[in-house]
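Input record (one chain):
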Amino acid sequence: MGNQLVYCKLSGFTSSYKIPSIIDGVQLALSVPGYSSILGMLSYASGKVITPGDTKIGFKYEYENVGFDLEKFHRFKRNDKGKYNYEPTNIRQREFHHKVSLELVLDNLDLFEVMDSPMRQLTFGRSQDLAIIEDVRIVSADTVDTGTLWGTLIPIKIGSDLPGDGLFYNLPEYFSYKKGKVRKPKNFRSFLALNQYEQEIQMDNLYRIDIDGVTSDFYLHQWL
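The corresponding structure, as predicted from the sequence alone:
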């Protein structure tokens, strides 16, 4: 008997996970969501903060098209007392993905009820990027040495051979949450966001599940 995981499939009309290092000009989107965004989604669904210690996460993310919105945004400025105030609003272009799908696997089985009956409306990035939960179930999973992956985020070491084709990002694993405080990014790591086509990847922490007779492989992220 293999491991058991929570499997959840979500879909939506649009999504936009911004690249955190870009703060001026055209706001480009990450090609896949970061692990901090998925933790944020789980926290929003559960009504409490979900941390890396609560669950491991695997995912596959797909989209059909790319477009651009005009978006109003607020700038923050720290005053003499160290507090942040709004500056005047401005307008910029923001990239978004169209017709998106996100498959999640989680090793904390308590999150089945959270995703089956979330406390709030889930989104893909922005508040207007509404997510629909299509499927939630408990599945059996077996470890494999080589898996077929795409649209996911795997950690890499600078100078080492890349395990596949994709885009390189430096991203935090999660954000700290303290009431009344500005969130702080934690555990910045180098990641490879795999492209949107199937690739045979050999690495640790790969799991294979069966969904209605169709096998699917996932990398289950190991937190620092």
